[in-house]
Write a structure and sequence with these properties.
The complex is a heterotetramer, with two copies of chain A (about 150 residues) and two copies of chain B (about 375 residues).
Chain A (H helix, E strand, L loop, with lengths): L6 H4 L10 H8 L14 E6 L6 E9 L2 E10 L2 H14 L4 H5 L3 H8 L7 H27 L2
Antiparallel strand pairs in A: 1-2, 2-3
Helix pairs in contact in A: 2-3, 3-5, 3-6
Chain B lengths: L1 E2 L10 H12 L10 H21 L6 E4 L2 H16 L5 E5 L4 H12 L3 E5 L9 H7 L4 E7 L11 H10 L4 E4 L11 H4 L3 E5 L10 E5 L25 H39 L4 E2 L10 E5 L5 H10 L2 E2 L15 H5 L4 H5 L1 E5 L6 H21 L3
Parallel strand pairs in B: 1-11, 3-4, 3-5, 5-6, 6-7
Antiparallel strand pairs in B: 2-8, 7-8, 9-10, 10-12
Classes of the chains: A alpha+beta (about 150), B alpha/beta (about 375).
The complex binds pyridoxal-5'-phosphate (2 copies).
């Protein structure tokens, strides 16, 4: 179901937008924007088509099997930015196992819903995190091979 | 609210609303009814038609009222195609037309017509040589927009008109974005068919017109009662037509002066944007444009995000290609001008109008600069 | 003024006007625009659609907004014909449809379709046997009106629906004269396509709807932006749609009670006319009819002259077949019912509505009796 | 040119009709309605299609080469009735030669104009009069043959 703010709800309370307050908040004040330095980075994910459409980069720093720091940069629509930001707040401080189990629906729930046609944007964050987690595994394997 | 999306739609002019209200409350008869209420409605309709004809420089019998610019475009294209099917099957248009023209061409292709979509140069102006080369003895219609809705870039319709006239090919001009913005009279365009739409010139939605020059072959697409010189059936939306007539009259009266005012504001806006935001590009800036339109690329950021940033500050702008729902496809107009897919995605259209004041634009420049800067800090590219 | 021409058009319900005004003044954004004004307009539109769907018993996604009943009929006929052209070329309708259907069938014949126009009995009811016999495996569409606009005679659409369904042929019902007059819900009609028009039910001109049941094959006739589930392009006439939604809601709420009231008034009117004017005939009186319509033949006098006689006394009636201008052709509906050309010329339609009171009809009977008597003294036949 | 009453002219002054006051007056109070008896009749004209459309019958009584009495009956639209009535007022008291020269335009002028699409109705009256004048000639000839 498409989550739409009904006009009545908005009467006189700012713009009538198809987004929830929570989503707008993450769009205006995205959390964990930025990059991690090469040394800090334990995993890195890049998703989206760099030639066209939305794109997202995500860095994680892991300590004690937990995501200690997370950072992202995103080229994309409001949904992409907000869901990326929301995803980082969900992932931060979580164990790797917990992080792996974060779903699109978790992100959507945190934001109180997202317009139907923007759902696919919310995939980006979760997919970037999965990619970063995979990347971390690879990096560990590589370290194990030539220490 | 600061509204800078006048190419998408405009608010009703108060005098238009007034005229419509009189009609809705008093002249609500059916113009086809054989009694005094119907007669009155019919006379009001004749006056509206005469008023439009006078404002645009044509005969009342050449004005066909329709329900939207889209319908006017469809009537022009499908109408000529239907009427001249036996004479040829080739239609020439440009690659940057509104979807009302381009998608109708797609539909006609499915019915067996052949369509040439002439490309534009990097400034968004149709390539005249290429257009002329595309004309064959099978060509039954040329359709070129007067100004593009996304960039405001004017097309050389007078020259196309001459090419078409030389070969006796009917010529359609989609003037939805210029009617009421430029002070032209219909005969100057040299076209047998011209579309315009009420809601783009401070008139009502649901009211539009197709000018059909005497003698232009046209088959109706809506059949039924004999309304609109037998070219468009359906009980007339009288209040809409009266509003349209009033709107056209007012817009044409003011077009020259308002055009100068908006050109000044627009040029100033573009100068300030260029000086306060790095790396921006004004699309079609070197071409002749309608006075009110500015299409700007902000490399590295997403247009939708800019729009939301402005919206949260009470400023309404759009990407230009109004998309009904769902994913905005990067503008086909900008892509045809050679803009990369990603830059097209990072472009917005600011379209000024009657209500626009200098201070609105001052604030807009400031919010835009902040928003773009913020988004550029987030961007991954 | 006494207005007895409600089948031609109706005045706006005050609540409809109110809803439209809010929309014209406040929700004037383009529903396709990506900013808050546009979003608001889009939400208002969704509400209007939902309201209509609820009133009529269908899904919001099954409501396609159009600009007139005529356009809805054209979309149904041309839309199915276009979509099923490869499956067959035969269309079945009745001989008494509105011109929006009949003339569209004529146009489709020119494009190579074959059309059967099923006759009606002397009461104006379509001959079901003859209709069933006309169905072939080439038949791609059946179109039958719910009630005739001139006589008010109801057609057995439910039975036609069963015949069509058995053969999986799409079925269109022109319900322009019953929507809001009879308290039906769409599924009861059994049709995949149903037309209705705002200005026949105290809503605005320029706003109508075609119900398109999920899965009904339909090709759009107006192409462009992706409005109306991609079935009807053109920037939406939002104020019109909001007005239509309000009008449908109000009409459906009141249909049962208002229907009883009007049936009483109409029957009384007919009784008094019969007793005070010799030799009159009520056309279709033996058939089931909508509550508000009475079609009367006054042998020996001309309908137009009766209309003018009434008009001069402030009473608006019509011949039923609204003709745009010029010579009224004797009603094809009455002719199909076996009425002579001359008697058809001497017939008028009285169509009652919300504003009609007993005293209006008292006066009408008196003026009619006087007028007819006077004209009969003049008549040469 | 179609003669249309402009709505302004009508504001508050009765119905907005495509007819002139003069035409309406003849429609409401047609002159010379009726028939002449066989004895009174010197000429009779019937025009129009009895099977369909408008029809008109016209009688004249002639004395001293003048139309002394004229009467008509008409089945038809307001234009047919009003122009027939107007025609009889034009013809009454005229010499036969004068009557023969009455044209549609004379009738239309008397009525102050008539809607374009009603013009053909105005033919009926003039044509019926011509027919009646012809009929009179025939009757005289017949009388001359067998007196
Ligand atoms: C150039 C052009 N043509 C056609 C249209 C369609 O007109 P309407 O919105 O009235 O359907 C528009 C506007 O949307 C336009 O800008
Ligand atoms: C039965 C019927 N169908 C279709 C129409 C056409 O509807 P509209 O007047 O909205 O074009 C009418 C009314 O004129 C009608 O009575």
């Amino acid at each position: 179901m498409e989550r739409e703010t009904r006009p009545e709800e908005n009467a006189g309370h700012g713009p009538a937008l198809p987004y929830t307050r929570a989503l707008l908040e993450h769009f205006v004040n995205p959390r964990n924007v930025g990059e991690l330095s090469e040394e800090e980075t334990d995993g890195f994910g890049l998703v989206g088509d760099p030639g066209c459409g939305d794109q997202m980069k995500l860095w994680i720093s892991v300590s004690d099997d937990r995501i200690e720091r997370i950072a992202f940069k995103s080229f994309g629509c409001p949904g992409a930015i907000a869901t990326s930001s929301a995803l980082t707040t969900l992932a931060e401080g979580r164990t790797l196992e917990e992080a792996r189990r974060i779903t699109d629906d978790d992100v959507i729930e945190l934001l109180g819903g997202i317009p139907e046609h923007k759902r696919h944007c919310s995939l980006l964050g979760v997919r970037a995190l999965q990619a970063a987690l995979e990347d971390r595994k690879l990096r560990l394997q590589q370290k194990a091979i030539r220490p | 609210m600061i509204y800078l999306d006048h190419n998408a739609t405009t608010p009703l002019h108060p005098q238009v609303l007034e005229a419509m209200l009189v009609c809705l409350q008093e002249h609500w008869g059916n113009p086809s009814s054989p009694h005094s209420l119907g007669n009155q409605a019919r006379m009001v309709m004749q006056q509206a038609r005469a008023r439009i004809a006078e404002s645009l420089g044509c005969e009342p019998s050449e004005v066909v009222f329709c329900s939207s610019g889209t319908e006017a475009d469809n009537l022009a294209l499908r109408g000529v195609a239907g009427a001249l099917r036996s004479r040829g099957n080739h239609i020439v248009t440009t690659a940057i037309e509104h979807h009302a023209v381009l998608h109708t061409c797609d539909a006609l292709e499915e019915e067996g017509f052949r369509v040439t979509r002439v490309p534009v140069d990097p400034q968004g102006v149709v390539d005249l040589e290429s257009l002329e080369r595309s004309l064959t003895d099978q060509t039954i219609l040329v359709s070129v927009m007067h100004a593009n809705n996304e960039t405001g870039v004017l097309q050389p319709v007078e020259e196309v008109a001459r090419m078409a006239a030389r070969r006796e090919i009917p010529f359609h001009v989609d003037a939805v974005q210029t009617a009421g913005k430029l002070p032209f009279r219909l005969p100057e365009l040299g076209a047998g068919l011209v579309s315009l739409s009420g809601h783009k010139l401070y008139g009502p939605r649901g009211a539009a017109a197709l000018f059909v020059r005497e003698g232009t072959p046209l088959r109706p697409i809506l059949t039924g009662g004999s309304h609109e010189h037998d070219l468009r059936a359906g009980t007339e939306n009288l209040a809409g037509l009266v509003g349209l007539a009033k709107a056209v009259e007012l817009a044409v009266q003011d077009a020259a002066e308002e055009g100068r005012r908006l050109t000044g504001l627009r040029d100033e806006l573009e100068a300030r944007l260029s000086s306060s935001i790095p790396e921006i590009r004004i699309n079609g800036a070197q071409a002749r444009r309608v006075p009110n339109t500015s299409n700007v690329t902000f490399p590295g950021v997403d247009g939708e995000s800019i729009i939301l940033g402005l919206d949260l500050a009470g400023i309404c702008v759009s990407t230009g290609s109004a998309c009904s729902t769902g994913e905005p496809e990067p503008s086909h107009v900008l892509r045809e001008m050679g803009v990369s897919r990603r830059d097209a995605q990072g472009s917005i259209r600011l379209s000024l109008g009657r209500g626009t004041r200098q201070e609105d634009l001052d604030l807009t420049v400031q919010v835009l600069a902040d928003t773009v800067a913020r988004l550029r800090r987030i961007t991954s590219i």
